[in-house]
Amino acid sequence: MEDIREVSDAQLVTMIARYNEVALAETYRRHGGAVFGLARRVLNGAAEAEDVTQEVFLRLWNQPERFDATRGNLRGWLLTQSHARAVETIRSLTARRQREINDAHKAARGAYDMQHEAWDVVLAEDVKKALGELPPEERRAIELAYFEGYTYIKVAEILNEPEGTVKSRIRNGMRRMRATLVESGIEGADR
Amino acid sequence: MMSHDEASELLAVAALHAVDAETLAAIDEHAATCPRCQSELDSYRVVASALGNSVEELPEGLWTNISSQLWERKGEPSEMPALQIDGVHADVVAIDSAARSSRRLRTAVGAIAFAAAASIVVLALTLSNAQNHVTNLEGALQSANRSVVQRALTMPGHQIVDLTNASNRRLAEFVMLPDGTGYLVKSNMPALTPNDTYQLWAIVKGSPVSIGVMGSSPGQVTFTMDSSPGPSELAVTVQPAGGSLTPAKSFVASGPVVAS
Questions:
Q1: Can you tell me the distance from the alpha carbon of B124 to that of A70, in angstroms, rounded to the nearest whole number?
Q2: Which residue among B9, B39, B57 sits closest to A33, beta carbon to beta carbon?
Q3: Which position among A63, A101, A178, B102 has the lowest Cβ density within 10 Å, counted as fewest Cβ atoms?
Q4: End of a domain among A80, A111, A142?
Q5: What letters, b where the CB count within 10 A reaches 16 and e where it falls short, cover A132-161?
Q6: Complex ipTM above 0.95?
Q7: How many CA atoms lie within 13 Å of A52's alpha carbon, on the beta-carbon side?
Q8: Do B19 and A151 form a contact (C-beta atoms < 8 A)?
Q9: Count of C-beta atoms within a 10 Å radius of residue A2
Q10: Is the CB of B53 less than 8 angstroms away from the CB of A124?
Q11: Mean pLDDT computed over every residue of chain B
Q12: What is the domain count for chain A?
C-alpha cells in the first residue's frame, strides 16, 4: 500500500471524504502548523488559535466537498478557512479583549517592525518581496486588514482616510503582489 | 443580489476578509454566478494565503482534541435533501441524529440499542435468475463498523459506487470488494415513513436484481453478492415496507460500479 506521506493533497481529501482518519492526521501534519500559525498571528493568542485550528480541521473532516481542487491548493484553502475563522473570532471578542489584542500587536510592532517580523516567520521569499515592494500606504492598509482582522471601513477610520481610498489601496496592493507571484510562477495567482 | 460592479470593487478586500460577514456572503453569492469575479477572487485568495503562509510549531495535545471529536458530527435537519419520486414530493420525515449520521453509527461500538430502530439490512428477499444469485444479505451491526468500511476502502480491487438522483445529487456511496461484499460508505438518503423502505438493486446485464431492503432510514448496510458477471450499476428504489420482487417505481438514485 502506498505510504500516506507520498499521497497528494487532493488524494488525501478524497480519503478524508471516505472517513479515513489517517488521511486527516497526515493533512494536519502537513498543514496544521500553517493553519495554527496564521490564526495565532491574527489572534495573538495560542488558546484562540487552537480553537480555530480545531474548527478548520473538523470542518474539513465534516465537509471535505467544500474544498475544490480546481480553485486552488489545499494549503491555500485551509489558510483561507483559518483566516476567516480567526477574523470572525477577533471581531466577536469583547471591546476590551479587542483592545488588549490591538495593544499587543502595537507592542510587537514597536519592538520589531511588522514587515521584518513577517520575514522571520517563514513567509515565502516571493511574498516577502511582493509585500516589501508595495508603497507603504498600501502595505499598511493590507496589514491592518489581513493580520489584524479589521474591515476596510475600520482601516479607513484608523488611517483617517476615505473608505474608497483604502479600498483602492488594498486592491492595488493585492494586484501588485499578485503580479509578483505570477512572475514567480506561484500556482493559482495567474487566473 | 449584489451587482457585478459592486462585487467587482470589493473582491480584493473580500479576499482579506476585510468586509463584514453579510457583505462577504453577498460577494460569494455573486461570484458563484460570475466566472470572471470568481476567478479574480480566487486569485486574490492565493495572494492572501501566501501572505499568511507561516508555520508554527503545533501545540501538544491539539491533534488529540481534534481526533476525539471526529465522530461527533452534528446534523442539521434543514440540510436534508428533499426526496422526489416520479416527480412527486415524497412524505419525508427527519432522520433522528443517531440514525442519520452514518459516521457516528459506524463508530458506535456496541450500540445494539439502536440497531433495531435504525437501518440494519435484513435479507428479506431471496431472488435468483438464470445467471445471478444474490445471497446472504445480513444484518450489519456486528460487522459493518467503521474500521470494516475503512478497510474495505483500502482493499485492492475495491469498487466505488456513487448513487446520484436525477438532479445529480449524491444520495449514497457504496464500496464493493472483489469477493462480492459491499458496504454502504455514506448516505444522504432522507428517512421515509415506516410504511416505505429503500430497496437496493444490482443491475446485471441490464436487468434489476434485488439485493435487499435497507429500511426506511439506511445507516449501516452490508451485503454479499454471488453474481457473475458482476453488476454494472447499483440502484435504489422506494418500495412499500417489506420490499418488492420487481422495482415498482423508478430509481431514486443509481450509479455505475467503477474501479477505484
A1: 44
A2: B57
A3: A63
A4: A111
A5: eebeeebbbbbbbbbbbbbbbebbbeebeb
A6: no
A7: 32
A8: yes
A9: 8
A10: yes
A11: 70
A12: 2
Q: Which of A75, A94, A111 is the last residue of a domain?
A: A111
Omega before B229 cis (within 30°)? yes
For the ranges A182-186, B5-9, B133-137, B201-205, the lowest mean pLDDT is seen at B133-137
- The rounded distance, in Å, linking the Cα atoms of B27 and B41 is 9
pLDDT, average across residues B131-151: 46
Domain of A155 in residue numbering reads as: 118-191
Q: Residue A15 is inside which H or E element, if any? A: helix A9-17
Partner residue opposite A178 with nearest CB, options B47, B150, B173: B47
Average the pLDDT over each of A78-82, A157-161, B1-5, B194-198 and give the range with the smallest value: B194-198
- Say if residues B106 and B220 touch (Cβ distance below 8 Å): yes
Contacts of A178 in chain B (CB under 8 A): 43-44, 46-47
Q: What is the per-residue pLDDT across A153-183, written as a single tens digit (0 to 9) for each?
A: 999 999 999 999 999 999 999 999 888 877 7
State the pLDDT at residue A144: 92
* CA–CA min distance B185, chain A (Å): 7
State whether A185 and A98 are in the same domain: no
